[in-house]
Amino acid sequence: MNQESEQRQQLRQQLNLIVRQLHELSVGSDLAADPDWRLLVAELQHPGHQPADHSYQIFFEKAKTPQLLIEPQSGGIVQANPAAALFYGYSQQQLQAMKITEINCLTPQQIHLEMNKAVAEQRCYFQFPHRLANGDIRQVEVHCGPVIIDGQPLLYSIIYDLTERLTTEAQLRAKRQRLQNILSGTQAGTWEWCLASDEILINAYWAQMLGYENHELEPVTRQTLQRLMHPEDWLHADATLQAHIAGRLPNVECELRLLHRLGHWVWVLCRGQIMTRDRDGAPLQMAGTHLDISARKMAELALRDSELRYRALHDSLPVGCVMLDQGRSILAVNQEACRIFGLSPEAFIGSTLSGASWQRLQEDGRPLSLDEHPVCRCLASGHPIRDAIMGVRRGQEAIIWLRVNCQPLFHPDDLRPYAAISTLQDITAQRRDEEALRLAASVLTAAREAILITNAEGRIVQVNQAFCDMTGYTADEVLGRNPKLLQSGYQDAEFYRSFWHSLHTQGHWSGEMWNRRKNGEIFAEQLTISAVTDEHGTPRHYVCLASDISDKKQYQRQLEQQAHHDLLTGLPNRKLLFDKLPELMAHCYPETSQRLVVAYIDLDGFKQVNDAHGHGIGDQLLIAITRRMRMTLREQDLIARIGGDEFIGVIHGSGNRQDLVRLIKRLLRVIARPVVIADLRLRVSASIGLATYPQTGSVSCERLIQQADEAMYRVKQQGKNGYLLVDDEIG
Fold first, then answer.
1. I want to staple 598 with a disulfide (CB 3.0 to 4.6 A). Which of 89, 147, 391, 708 is the partner?
2. pLDDT in tens, 610-633
3. Do 399 and 431 contact (CB within 8 A), yes or no?
């Protein structure tokens, strides 16, 4: 008794530890509202609570965080919760057939070093790289501790995914280093201005640019800047600043002159913007940079005219270049411009736009007046023109479509441009391709079948509306992702091997597949997938056409369900039981440890409930009892309804009598628990007869069930609410 008490106390301490570790997971989640979860926590926290076998299981299964039970000696995974299966990409059965070393990417020596490091850093967790089923490596944080489950010492491990956090931290460190490298490499002066205190913090480069050390200028204020800045530049810089503060400019950018310690002017490119504002929108802090552009400014003053002209006209450019003056006369052209218009440089230079022999067209095909010409608008406004579209046509020739960009050119201190440079990109073929794409897109949109297109790497590049209607995803939610997000888990690895073999060898695949909608609903599709290859036969895209055949599959399932399952409880019926049992018996041999136990279950007192409250209440009671039995038995076990209140369970096991007895007693307890239906508190019990297989000599499935039936009747005769294994006394 003392030993049993100590074991219960130990189990309670372990469960309380798990409660504390996982309590945070329920906060703000669906788990916190789950009645089973609240009931379990209340039970575990009750001073007189005695841990039940199902307590740990509910904890384990409900947790949203991946959790594993590991055998410490072998490293074998004894149990994995659904969250672990979802995280690692394996089924729970696959995980439970693996060792933790198949997931942990570190060598034993590296694991030992990490454990020593955790001790040295006084951490209560380890950091390991874990490999998922798809081959991805995820950095995880593992919290683990010893527990004893059913008398077996295990390691209880809780896994947190750190990959995104570590990646973000590494990226942030890299960005900071890059910024520091840029500042060092460009020798950019930086400034931070607190508008409330008028204090300006500068770095060493800012001061060195003017021949000072920081302490010689500090404190730096707006008045300091006005004292150092050229008077002609102060008004322009201040106007730019006020326009930015008022929101008319996205940032401050201007070129100005600052006085060097030795008395000469230093040309500086000043860039900056408001970093923070108060609740009323008033600026609080600004930051920016100063770059010394003195050398560039001197070069511009000496070479501006010739440099701008000859750089823009370089014949190697893939776009046409034309320079025009304020009189709209053509000053210079390059070879590409001559090719576009079909003229020689001699015929081009000196001519005017008004005397051109070609017709000008707007993007919609209407005539384009001379004043609306992009280069004329640029010369008139003094502002650049970007990405204007126009067409030109000579006589009855086909239209040549151009993308036009224009840049005004100014003499120093002039406000009006003396000329403008236009770049002309021939986009005729591009527009033709775009029209073809629009046609293809209209076909894609009008198609009733769902269409999905991926690139060669399997990333989704396009879907149509029918796809969105069928799956529940929007196009933005799936573009760039792998179609695996639709996988239901119904198809096994062999299915996909055959699928890819057909696609790679034949270039197409057609068949049925079960997939999952965004809302989690499973649906059936009829798919045809084809590879789109380039001129070398290399796949560049995959096109999938899909039709929803869920209604057809649902009708087939309904027919199958009605033929093989009980309509009330959904359990397998007598026919399906007698189909399955011989198959299960065929896998059990006397020389192996595999055993089957047939449990004949008859509900005690069910007839009285039916007689007293009617068949409607009786049916609800049967459904509730069925649900409990399903939850109590394991996934590999089978339970069928063969009569009104009679059930047969087929239990897999290793022949360990103690394990069987614990399971049957647990089954008796859950059946005997009261059921509340329509304010009625109903209670039934069960009489269970048990027969094992294999036995000495040959025995049929009918005889096996008959043995269990006879044992059940002996339980009935001797008081009900018990169990009897053939040749044993009543339990």
1. 708
2. 999 999 999 999 999 999 999 999
3. no
- Find tokens 């990409």 and name the residue: 89
What pLDDT does 519 receive?
93
Cis peptide before 219 (omega within 30 of 0): yes
**Residues in contact with 668: Cβ distance below 8 Å, sequence separation at least 6, in sequence order:** 685, 686, 688, 721, 722, 723
Alpha helix (H) residue ranges in 27-77: 35-45, 53-62
Task: Please name which of 106, 105, 102, 61 lies closest in space to residue 84, comparing C-alpha atoms.
Answer: 61
Q: Which positions ≥6 away from 522 have C-beta within 8 Å?
A: 488, 490, 514, 515, 516
pLDDT in tens, 212-264: 998 998 899 999 999 999 999 999 999 999 999 888 999 999 999 999 999 99
- Contact present, 539 and 533 (Cβ < 8 Å): yes
User: Strand, coil or helix: what is 485?
Assistant: helix
pLDDT at 164 over 70: yes
430 falls in which pLDDT band (50, 70, 90)?
Answer: confident
Is 628 exposed, middle or buried (CB count within 10 Å of its CB: 0-12, 13-18, 19+)?
middle
Nearest to 694 by CA among 596, 598, 556, 550: 596
Is the pLDDT at 41 greater than 90, yes or no?
no
**The pairing of beta strand 539-548 with beta strand 508-516:** unpaired
pLDDT for residue 311 is more than 60: no
pLDDT above 50: residue 22: no
What is the CB neighbour count within 10 angstroms for residue 334?
22
Q: Is the peptide bond before 412 cis (omega within 30 degrees of 0)?
A: no
Residue 515 is encoded by which pair of tokens? 């997939």
Residue 152 near residue 168, CB atoms below 8 Å: no
Contacts of residue 100, Cβ cutoff 8 Å, sequence gap at least 6: 68, 70, 75, 76, 77, 157
- Which residues, in sequence order, are CB contacts of 483 under 8 Å at separation 6+? 452, 454, 458, 460, 544
Query: What b/e sequence results for 438-462 when a residue is b if at least 16 CB atoms lie within 10 Å of its CB, and e otherwise?
Result: eeeeeebeeeebbbbbbeeeeebeb
With contact defined as beta carbons under 8 Å apart, do 366 and 389 qualify? no
Residue 369 · residue 340 · CB < 8 Å: no
Token pair 């279950």 is found at 601
DSSP state of 572: B
Q: Which residues make beta-bridge pairs with 572?
A: 565
Cβ atoms 257, 227 nearer than 8 A: no
Over 80: is that where the pLDDT of 438 sits? no
Phi, psi of 456 (to 5 degrees): -65, -25
Direct distance between the N- and C-terminal alpha carbons of the chain, in angstroms, rounded to an integer: 21
DSSP 8-state class, residue 375: H
Residues facing residue 404 across a β-bridge: 388, 424
pLDDT at residue 7, as a whole number: 45
Residue that has been written with the tokens 């608008």 in this structure: 377
Please determine, for residue 700, whether its predicted confidence score (pLDDT) is greater than 80: yes
Q: What is the pLDDT of residues 336-375, one digit of tens each?
A: 888 888 888 888 888 888 888 788 889 888 999 989 999 9
Strand 283-292 and strand 522-533: the pairing is unpaired
Tell me the pTM.
0.32
Q: In this model, does residue 450 exceed pLDDT 60?
A: yes
Q: At what angle do helices 574-586 and 701-717 cross, to 10 degrees?
A: 110
Write the burial class of residue 100 (CB in 10 Å: 0-12 exposed, 13-18 middle, 19+ buried).
buried
Cα 274 to chain centroid distance, Å, stands at 34
CA atoms within 13 A on the CB side of 450: 20
Q: Where are the beta strands (DSSP E) in 162-222?
A: 189-194, 199-202
Look over the chain and give the mean of its residue pLDDT values, rounded to a whole number: 84
Mean pLDDT on 186-201? 86
